[in-house]
Amino acid sequence: MLILTTAVTTGALTLSACGSRGDDNQSGEGKSTVVIGLDAPTTGELSALGLGIRNSAQLAVDTANKAGEVKGITFKLEALDDKALPNVGQQNATKLAGDKDVLGVIGPLNSGVAQSMQQVSKQNNLTLISPANTTPDLTQGKDWKQNKRVRQFPTYFRTATTDEVQGAFDGQYAWEKMKAKKAYVIDDQKTYGVGLAASFKDQFAKLGGKIVGTEHVSPDDRDFKAVVSKVKSAKPDMVFYGGEYPASGPLSQQLKDGGVAAPVMGGDGMYSSDYIKLNKKAQGDYASSVGKPVEELPSARKFIADYKAAGFKEGYEAYGGSTYDATWAVIQAVKKVVETHNGKLPDDARKQVADAMNKVTFDGVTGPIAFDKYGDTTNTMITAYQVDKGAWASRFSAEFKKFDKS
What we know:
7-stranded mixed beta sheet, alpha/beta, 5-stranded parallel beta sheet
């Protein structure tokens, strides 16, 4: 998921850093402190998702410390608010890179913010791993559609699959499961929304679906009268929205108030409990999200129980499980480095942690965790949800390449 507000071209500050060793910044006798940074929107319209990310990362850090997961190491989370703005994300990345104890950063939520942070991460050998970014360009470059895929940043990873997978899944789900033949496609003109909508259109049309209209809106729009009129005239079987829930919630309600009975569908940017709070007529709408719902995964039972026991005021939301796994991946990379250096952190700990990330594998909250040659997760599971009785209910989960065509 992403939100891209402005293009950021300012240069990145290069700093060298490594975790503190036993002779400085000790959190206990013979222990070194490793800081894991976090960047997410913890205020503003997308804070429901950002707070779930922050809390889930904190839970992973607390779990590692309690269990003594890495001998001689105490982990600390340093969470910063990016307000879903690329320039703030870049400032946060630079700040975290300036702390020699930071060996990895979790986040961001938004792919547009990630674009502003990746160069800082690379120049400082600092691992950046997102539980939510889905734009393919971030890992594979702008020519991925021509199958000219080149890894962009050796320090960037993610536990969320890409919109190449998600958008195509949505297009196929709409055609084969929703039985839609005609779709009206709307996007918010941002990288995430445009890319997701394009992938949906390609797959839906490829299968025989007809795109009966397209429209571009601003993510700040809340009055959609003109759009409602156009959609109503086109008589679609469904409306697909590429963007996030702050706009799609009001859009959906206004469409239904205006006489459009067709359900609205979107990607993980719509999959939030706040979408339902913003939309009194959300019943029957659809959204996809990366992975399988943690509530249905045996591997997530402990995470759910521990999250509840921790007493967080906010829910873990869409990215709780993938955030826990992203944080645990950094912890495991640190563990690999420490174990290969006789229980100590080397002077070039950041670089070695980033290198170790490529070889990290474990059974996580969301399933088996591993990364391909681009830094992308090898888990391509997507789930379709539908609003039913005031809550999101899972309807179908599959790896896209194994999508059931029956």
